[in-house]
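Example record for the data management plan.
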Amino acid sequence: MKRQRRTLRLNCTLAQITWGELSPTLLQGLEDLTERYGLSVALGDIQQIDGRWYVTHAGLLRTAQRRRCHSIKTSLQKDVSDPVAGRWVFKATVYKTAGSKGFVGYGDAAPSNVSTLVRGAEMRVAETRAVDRALRKAYGIGLCSVEELGYLSSRAESSPTKGSPPPSSNGNGSSNGQPRLRDRLCLLIRQHQLDPTLVKRYAADFCGTQELREASRELVESFIATLAGQAAKDRDGLICKLNSYSNPEVVKS
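Corresponding structural encoding:
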């Protein structure tokens, strides 16, 4: 219960940093999603778009992992796919246990219903959408997934917010409505009462760079997810690891 309350507080704080002041209805919805599915804003499990919550592919996969999902199988539906036109249809089946019949979901993608950022990768998008739908059925998640809403990405690209800055590619920027990585890291440090200097040294070593600011966004995201998991599972062990970085002259392997 204590961990759940901490997760809820962190979710609410991060959500309002990311999307501004949220209505009581949205906050209540976030509380329900946190309690029922354990979804995390910090890890990018959910998104708020136009006043509604949406689950992400990453959030669905983490939910399946927590619930000990047995397996996921996908297959291309050749009879209704058209490679020449770039239209692909996939079937996904989620088996919650070894003996279950499976939950089926279908996903399609074509140049007309995907973001221009992933144009040319319609086959992979179709498979992701199929898996999302099957997982939502298997675990009773009524939220639509972000990956199924290709039209929203296209609309956002064609009608950018006036005066909004371009997406940043470094570790301190934000992308696609995600919280700024710097804010996410600072919140984790405050939440778990970690030493900021030692965390930065650990992060630089984790990313293989001299300074954290030199690391790519993907590496920083991976570090934050790793740090959050370590802090939640074994804070004492994490503190011991951080203390090993107290001497900046020590070279880490």
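Summary line stored alongside the record: Residues 68-158 form a domain with the Double Stranded RNA Binding Domain fold (CATH 3.30.160).
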